[in-house]
Every structure is written in C-alpha cells, then in structure tokens.
C-alpha cells in the first residue's frame, strides 16, 4: 500500500495558528486576547496555544501541577477567530507550561489520533518549572507535533538552553503504538519561551539596545538562538520566519516600556515559533504590543500546511488491487508436491503374505516443503489402517528433491480380522485405505491403496464357512463380502470342512501331535511354520493331495482358524458360560449357539479329550490354550483371573467323565444341520470327512460329522 | 508481511458431486479465470481470497474437495473445521441434484451444528442443456432453510456474490468481540439464528 501511495494521496491545505505567551503568573482577566488569537484574516483550522509561567508558585512546582487550567482554556475558546466554530482537542500542562490544541469543529473527524506528553527539565531535571509539553496528532495521513517549551533562563546560560532542547528531543516519547519521538512527525511546530537572549553588540551598549528605533535586523545578528542554530548547536532542521517585531522581553507590566527596574535586563527575543517539515508556509509572525499584563509580549504565527490526505475513492481502488495482489501471491506461493501416483494397486493380496509398493514424491515449488501423512479421526487414530505400513510418514523435501515412500500391506494374523470386517461393511468399492498426504500449509493429496483381497478360510466365521458351496479360492472379494453378510440359518455342512480336515489330519497323527499346540502362533504377526501358506492353499482349494505340512503346522492352522474370526467361537455366551458352575448348566448355553459353532465346539472337545486320555498332551496346557481362543475376551483386558477361569471351563469339557453330556448335546446339534448338496469334486473332502469321522469314532456315534446327502 | 493483513479468517468448504464445477467456481472467485479442461481434484486444495465486509478485512480460506464417491468418507473429516459450506450441483445433471439430499445428510452428521450453508446450482450458462429448473433448486433450499443461488463459473454469474453472502452470514454470527487476535477460533453467536440478514452486495 505504502509503495503505491502516490496513486491515492493528494494534499489539502490547512491553516495552523501557533501562539505563545509567557504570562508571568498574571491573571488573564480583561486581556484583549483576541488581538493575539484572532489576528489572521481567515479562521484557522488548528490552534496550538502555548503558555508559560502559568503558576510558578513553590506549591505548584512541588506538586508538579499538571491539571490544565480550564479558566484559561475557556478564555482561549472565547478569544479565537469568530468565523469558525471551535472545540478543545486536548491540553497538556506541566506546572507553568500549558499547551492547548483547539480545532475547528468541521475538521475534528479528520484527526484520527492524538497523544500528549510532558518532560521536566528544571532543577535536577525533575521539577517542572522548565522543560516541555507536547501534543502529537494525526490529521488525515499526516502526523503533526506541537511542542511548548520553557528553556533555561539568563543571558549566560546558552549552553543550558541548548542542553534543555536536546534533552527534550531525546527524552520525549509519546505513548502511542509506535512510541513516536518529536522527530517522528511530518510537521513539527516548536513554540515557547526559549529564553535565548541578545548578546550585547560591541559599541552598542545597553541603553542603545533598548532603543525602539533600532532595527530588529541588527539585534537579530546578535540573537543567541540564531547564532546557535547557525553553529548547529540546537534546533537542527528548524526554520524560523523573519522577525519584524520588537524584542518581546522584558517590559514593565502594563506598559510598552522595557525593564526600568534596577536589574535593567536587556531586551530579548525570548518568545519564538519555529517549524520543521515540508510543505509549510508561514503567513504571519508577529507579537502583540497591546496586551500588557505580563513582562513578555505574546507572539503568534500563522501557517499554511499542505497535509497529506487520502482520496478515499482512489484509495479503495488501490487497496482492492493490493489485496488482490497479496492474495494472488499467497495462492501462488502455496507449497506444492507432486506425487508419482495417487493410486497404489497391489493386485491380488493373500492372507499371510506381505506386499510392498514404492512411489516418489517431489518438491514442485521453489522452497523447502514439509509433508506428513495425516492422522485420521478416531477410532482409527492413525495415519493408515492396521494392515498398512507407510514409511516415512513425515519428511522434508529440499528444493528440487524427490523422496521415495514405501507402502507395505500385510493381511496377517494381526490385521485379518479388521480387514475382513472392513470388507464386510464397506458400501462401495472396497479400497484397502486412502492415505492423506498433507503438504505443510498446502493441499492434501489423497492416495488410494487398492487391490483385491483373495479370500481364505482364515478369519471367516464358522457360520460363513458352513455356507460356502465351493472352495474359497473360487470366491472373489465381492462374493466373500456377500457371503459374510449372509445371515440366513441355512448351512450347507454341519461344520466347516477346513476345520474338520485339520482335526481329521491331527487325529490320524496319533502320538505325533505331542507338543503341537502352542500359543506362539497367536502371538506372532505371521504364521511360524514355513508350510503355512501351503496348508492355506490346501484348505482353500479343497485339495485331494496329501496334507502338505507337519502336525505342528496343522495345529497352528487349527488355532488360527478358531482364533481369527471377528467373534470368539463361544460368542455371544462367553461371559455367561464363564459364570456357569456345572457342565450341564454350560451345555444348556452351548446348545443355544449357532449349529456350526456348537458342532465345532463339541467336535473339538471330543478330539482334545481323546488326546488327553491317550496322554498326547497335557490337559491343563491345551485347556489354557483353547480357553483363551474359544472364550477370547472381546474387550482388551488381560485379566489373569479370567485366564484361569477360561482354563478351568475348558478343563471341565475336555477332562474325563463328561462324555455323556457332550454326546447327547452333539447329537441334537447334528439334527439341526441343514440339507447339503455335494456337487462337484465327488471324491472329495466331504467323502473323506464322512469317512474319517466314523473312523475316528470320536464320540462313538454319528455325531459331529458332515451331514452329506 | 509479518503484519496480519486481515481481521477475521473464515474457513469455507466446497462440496458436491464430481464434475459439478467446484474447482472452477473456486478458480473463478480467486483468480477471476475459467478453464474448461477438467482436472479431477484428488484431495483437498485451498485458495485464499480477502474480501471487505462492513469495514472488516475478511480472509476467506476456501477448501475445494474431491467429489468422487470413493472419497466421500474421507472428506467428511474436513467438514468439522468449516464455518461455511457451499453445496454445489450441476443444473445439467439430474443425479448431482438428487445427491444434494445425501450431501445435506453428510453435513448434518459431520459438520458443526451452526455451519452456514448455501446451495449453488452451477453451469446456469448452459440453458439448452438444463434439466434442473431453478424452481426445484429454490424449493429444496427453502425446504431445508438454506440460501440458494444459480451460478456460472464460466460466465462469472453470482460467484462473487455467493461467497460474500455466505461470508456475511458467518460474520452475522460471529460475536462483536474482536477475534483478530485469534482468527482460528471465532466465537459464534447463536442469537438471531432465525432472522434472515439483509444482504446488500458487499464486494461488488
Ligand atoms: N458451461 C460451464 N461449464 C462449467 C462450469 N463450471 C465448470 N464447468 C465445467 O465442468 C467440468 C468440471 O468442473 P470442475 O470444476 O473440475 O468440477 P469439480 O469436480 O466439481 O471440481 C469442467 O470441464 C468445467 O469446464 C460452468 O459454470 N459452466
Ligand atoms: Mg474439483
């Protein structure tokens, strides 16, 4: 805005009337002050009226009297030019010095700010019998300063006067927002009893100097103020207009005669008005002889000042343009990053396999840019879903630089449950995630991570697994989603083939299953056995081949199959079951489970019981493991007592002596299973299952096997 | 530029189906320009524009969102920070108009309760391809008690006035308290929610 000032600034003339009067403690009553304050032809816009020696009593000095003298101000308002309507803007007083600024009503609103300040210089620089008072104001776009000072007295004290001047210039700071000093103004008017005297010209001794006939010109040659200003000792940069009046000091009060007392003080131009700043023209500078109360004569000066003023119309135009420019600059300097791709397609993603994709991000602007992946809202509260890793998640890019970001996707033990849950509940096309790359102070870029999850039996509920009509490898993501959302009570088999095949295999291994069940596989992010993926495919394809792994691997797969579904096997009765005291009581609840779950539970218990009976494994150990899996807490509390509780519950079911209860319940379970069509792959698991079930003679009856037609 | 160049900061959000003209509207407002090439927004972009309303310099930070369906969930997380939302449809695209109801539901669920809303029927320059009448636009706006305007980013119709009206509505809500110290957290005054503020053009 400042730089384009010339486009909207114009100058407007104001008349400024400065006046000074050392009143010598005299009353103003009956003084014809209008002679002093209304001497101009036109009504001035602003008055700055300076008084000195208003009250120099010891009391006033001691108490630093600083309340403006309202009787005086009233009198001033009565005496200003009668062609204008005036009001007092402000007054400032320090003991004997008072400065009053009076403005024409019509320009009052053009004054947008005004401040006052005083500074004491007298004895010890604290008593206010000497010093300065000042007013700072803003008129349109210009800053004006008026100073009224009363400097050190006496002929010989030139240096003290200079010092007072410098003390005021340095020490006076207004309490405005910019902490302006006197010199921080566009137009400065220095008014007052500056007290500079006239050196006695050689050969022109005292009596001569007092002669009225003597021209001011000669006297002024020996005026201390002019001499000091010429030497550069004070009032640097100030101008004073020509003086065409007699010395204003010292008169016998009531007369126009110079001091006739014993002191016989030499006449002097004590009372002065100086200015500093551009576009100031002095129109008048004079003293008033006909005011005789004091030993000084009052002085006034009239100025025309061209005040910097804003053209509102032009200003608005420039202002709007500048705003536009600033906005444009800000928009253009917004940090930008180029992302190599906004879609990361992992293709086919399978359970227990990790896939990796890299992409680059480049700085696209002429400065360093920071970026990070934005943390998503709760409940996720992370930059990405559980099945993803992004590295680095936060980085700085130097100018012209490029960095590589790695995205890792693993549908593993840790994440499969939530991944399947998300697939099940997503309403439109499923994406693995959308990452938000947030450029610092800039745009946010969405990076879609997509691909196709290849369904596997792991993580699916027993109910879902009992609804499949073909191997899981023949389902695609959308079909598995529909299957997961199928809540019909119709099941194609009494228990999942995948479960049955694993049990069947383990059962056949006899004593080789010793030590196969461990909790480790549940505590790792990946399956521990190298054959795991082969077993996965064997299960998901309903393969006729030999089981591709060891008993250990089969046990691990079995535990995962039971552990990974969203809900534990005994859901929704987990808490109620843990409260039961007897097996019979528990069986009542078990009979309420969905038939796939119930059948799996019963079948599993019988299998475990047999192993314990034959001492393949320790009953307490497997009870601990399966207690944790089947009665898994859906809340995240690892309660030690709960763990014991689960173990004891399982022990009741897999230790000896509970056979009869189990059998009766499981036969009722099998009657609940729906019809089943054994279509393709005739020689297949189903037949095999049927076989093994009877061979295994787990419960000595037609329980728990697949009800094939 | 260390000195703050504005009194208040308002965050506005543009939402609506992909292709209705959100990015063009923003571009017209901020840069006073229009291009007819369609570059799908993949994420959230913002531009700033300072306007003067009632003697206050108001910096509008306008967020343009991706309209594609796959981004719907993710963009809702940006609603909360918005003080005003422009909901845009395309008068030549029936579907985009029907989806207004969906977008409104999204706003109800995710935005601040007192967010100021406005519906814009964009591309009103394409009179020969119009399928949604102005009356239908007005009706749905009236039904939900929301301001409405037909706009054209291409022919620069109502773009500036729409943003200024929305900003003015937000200004009406913000308490008289000086929020310049902390423009991010402008206090919202809940009084006078009913009274429709008298709009005069603010930034002609
Ligand atoms: N005729 C016409 N076309 C427009 C107008 N606004 C946008 N378009 C066009 O509509 C297409 C989509 O605009 P865009 O702003 O990218 O839509 P967005 O997806 O909502 O951000 C572009 O090809 C634009 O040129 C308009 O006011 N009139
Ligand atoms: Mg867009």
From TrEMBL, chain A:
Location of this chain's protein in the cell: Cytoplasmic vesicle, Phagosome membrane; Early endosome membrane
Biased composition (Low complexity): 664-675, 691-709
Region feature (Disordered): 664-709
Domain Inositol polyphosphate-related phosphatase: 12-311
Domain Rho-GAP: 493-658
Primary residence: membrane
Example GO molecular function: phosphatidylinositol-4,5-bisphosphate 5-phosphatase activity
Pfam families for this protein: Exo_endo_phos2 (PF22669), OCRL-like_ASH (PF21310)
Any single GO CC term annotated in Swiss-Prot or TrEMBL for this entry: phagocytic vesicle membrane
Gene3D superfamilies: Endonuclease/exonuclease/phosphatase (3.60.10.10), Immunoglobulins (2.60.40.10), Rho GTPase activation protein (1.10.555.10)
GO BP term, pick one: signal transduction
PANTHER family found in the cross-reference section: INOSITOL 5-PHOSPHATASE, TYPE II INOSITOL 1,4,5-TRISPHOSPHATE 5-PHOSPHATASE
Name of the protein in its database record: Endonuclease/Exonuclease/phosphatase family protein
Species of origin: Musca domestica (House fly)
Lineage of the species this protein comes from: Eukaryota, Metazoa, Ecdysozoa, Arthropoda, Hexapoda
UniProtKB/TrEMBL annotation, chain B:
Keyword terms: GTP-binding, Lipoprotein, Membrane, Nucleotide-binding, Prenylation
InterPro entries: P-loop_NTPase (IPR027417), Small_GTP-bd (IPR005225), Small_GTPase (IPR001806), Small_GTPase_Rab (IPR050305)
GO molecular function ontology, one term from the record: GTP binding
Membrane-topology descriptor: Lipid-anchor
PROSITE patterns per record: RAB, RAS, RHO
Endpoints of the signal sequence: none
Gene Ontology CC, one term: endomembrane system
Predominant cellular place of this UniProt entry's protein: membrane
GTP-binding in keyword set: yes
Subcellular location: Endomembrane system
Pfam families linked: Ras (PF00071)
NCBIfam families registered for this protein in UniProt: small_GTP
Family under the similarity heading: Belongs to the small GTPase superfamily. Rab family.
Annotated PANTHER family: LD44762P
Official protein name in the record: Ras-related protein Rab-10
The organism of origin for this protein: Musca domestica (House fly)
Gene that this polypeptide is encoded by: 101888766
């Amino acid at each position: 805005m400042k730089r384009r000032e010339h486009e909207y600034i114009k100058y407007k003339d104001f008349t400024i009337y400065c006046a000074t009067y050392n009143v010598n403690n005299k009353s103003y009553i009956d003084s014809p002050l209008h002679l002093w304050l209304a001497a101009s032809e036109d009504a001035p816009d602003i008055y700055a009226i300076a008084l000195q020696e208003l009250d120099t009593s010891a009391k006033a000095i001691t108490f630093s009297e600083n309340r403006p003298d309202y009787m005086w101000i009233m009198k001033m308002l009565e005496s200003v030019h009668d062609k204008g309507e005036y009001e007092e803007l402000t007054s400032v007083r320090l003991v004997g010095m008072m400065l009053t600024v009076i403005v024409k009503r019509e320009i009052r609103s053009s004054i947008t700010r005004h401040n006052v300040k005083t500074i004491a210089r007298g004895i010890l620089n604290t008593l206010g019998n000497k010093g300065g008072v000042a007013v700072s104001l803003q008129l349109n776009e210009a800053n004006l300063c008026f100073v009224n000072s009363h400097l050190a007295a006496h002929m010989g004290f030139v240096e003290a006067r200079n010092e007072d001047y410098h003390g005021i210039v340095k020490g006076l700071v207004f309490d405005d927002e910019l902490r302006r000093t006197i010199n921080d103004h566009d137009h400065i008017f220095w008014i007052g009893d500056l007290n500079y005297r006239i050196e006695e010209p050689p050969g022109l001794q005292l009596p001569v100097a007092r002669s009225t006939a003597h021209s001011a010109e000669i006297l002024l040659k020996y005026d201390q103020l002019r001499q000091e200003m010429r030497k550069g000792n004070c009032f640097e940069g100030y101008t004073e207009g020509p003086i065409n009046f007699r010395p204003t000091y010292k008169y016998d009060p009531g007369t126009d005669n110079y001091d006739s007392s014993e002191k016989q003080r030499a006449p002097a131009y004590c009372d002065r008005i100086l200015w500093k700043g551009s576009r100031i023209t002095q129109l008048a500078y004079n003293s008033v002889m006909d005011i005789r109360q004091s030993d000084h004569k009052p002085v006034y000066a009239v100025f025309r000042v061209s005040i910097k003023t804003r053209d509102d119309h032009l200003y608005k135009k420039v202002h709007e343009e500048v705003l536009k420019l600033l906005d444009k600059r800000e928009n253009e300097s917004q940090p930008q990053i180029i992302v190599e791709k906004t879609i990361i397609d992992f293709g086919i993603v399978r359970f227990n396999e990790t896939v990796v994709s890299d992409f680059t991000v480049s700085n696209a602007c002429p400065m360093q840019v920071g970026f990070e992946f934005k943390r998503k809202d709760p409940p996720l509260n992370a930059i990405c879903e559980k099945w993803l890793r992004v590295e680095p998640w936060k980085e700085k890019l130097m100018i012209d630089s490029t960095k590589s970001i790695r995205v890792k996707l693993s549908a593993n033990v840790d994440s499969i449950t939530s991944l399947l849950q998300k697939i099940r509940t997503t309403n439109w096309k499923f994406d693995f995630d959308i990452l938000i790359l947030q450029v610092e102070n800039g745009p946010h870029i969405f990076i879609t991570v997509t691909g196709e999850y290849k369904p596997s039996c792991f993580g699916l509920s027993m109910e879902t697994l009992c609804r499949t009509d073909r191997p899981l490898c023949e389902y695609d993501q959308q079909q598995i989603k529909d299957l997961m959302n199928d809540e019909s009570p119709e099941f194609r088999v009494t228990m999942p083939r995948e479960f049955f095949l694993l049990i069947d295999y383990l059962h056949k291994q006899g004593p080789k299953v010793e030590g196969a069940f461990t909790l480790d596989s549940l505590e790792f992010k990946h399956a521990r056995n190298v054959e795991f993926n082969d077993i996965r495919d064997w299960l998901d394809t309903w393969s006729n081949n030999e089981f591709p792994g060891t008993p250990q691997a089969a046990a691990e797969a079995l535990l995962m199959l039971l552990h990974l579904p969203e809900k534990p096997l005994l859901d929704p009765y987990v808490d109620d079951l843990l409260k039961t005291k007897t097996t019979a009581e528990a069986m009542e609840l078990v009979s309420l489970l969905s038939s796939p779950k119930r059948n799996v539970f019963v079948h599993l218990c019988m299998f475990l019981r047999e192993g314990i009976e034959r001492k393949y494994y320790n009953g307490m150990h497997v009870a601990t493991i399966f207690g944790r899996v089947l009665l898994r807490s859906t809340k995240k509390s690892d309660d030690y007592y709960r763990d014991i509780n689960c173990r004891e519950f399982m022990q009741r079911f897999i230790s000896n002596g509970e056979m009869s209860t189990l059998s009766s319940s499981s036969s009722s379970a099998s009657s609940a299973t729906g019809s089943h069509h054994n279509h393709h792959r005739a020689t297949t698991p189903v037949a095999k299952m049927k076989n093994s079930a009877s061979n295994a003679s787990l419960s000595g009856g037609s329980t728990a096997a697949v009800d094939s037609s | 530029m260390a000195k703050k160049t504005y009194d208040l900061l308002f965050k506005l959000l543009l939402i609506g189906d992909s292709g209705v003209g959100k990015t063009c509207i923003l571009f017209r407002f901020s840069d006073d320009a229009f291009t007819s090439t369609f570059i799908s927004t993949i994420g959230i972009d913002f531009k700033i524009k300072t306007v003067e309303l009632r003697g206050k310099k108001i910096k509008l930070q306008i967020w343009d969102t991706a309209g594609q369906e796959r981004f719907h969930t993710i963009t809702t997380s940006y609603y909360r920070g918005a003080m005003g939302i422009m909901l845009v449809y395309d008068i030549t695209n029936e579907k985009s108009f029907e989806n207004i109801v969906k977008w409104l539901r999204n706003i109800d669920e995710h935005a601040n309760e007192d967010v100021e809303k406005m519906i814009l029927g964009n591309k009103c320059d394409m009179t020969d391809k119009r399928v949604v009448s102005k009356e239908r636009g007005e009706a749905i706006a009236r039904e939900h008690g929301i301001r409405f305007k037909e706009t054209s980013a291409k022919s620069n119709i109502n773009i500036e006035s729409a943003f200024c009206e929305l900003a003015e509505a937000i200004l009406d809500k913000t308490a008289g308290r000086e929020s310049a110290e902390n423009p991010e957290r402008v206090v919202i005054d809940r009084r006078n929610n009913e009274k429709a503020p008298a709009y005069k053009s603010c930034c002609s």
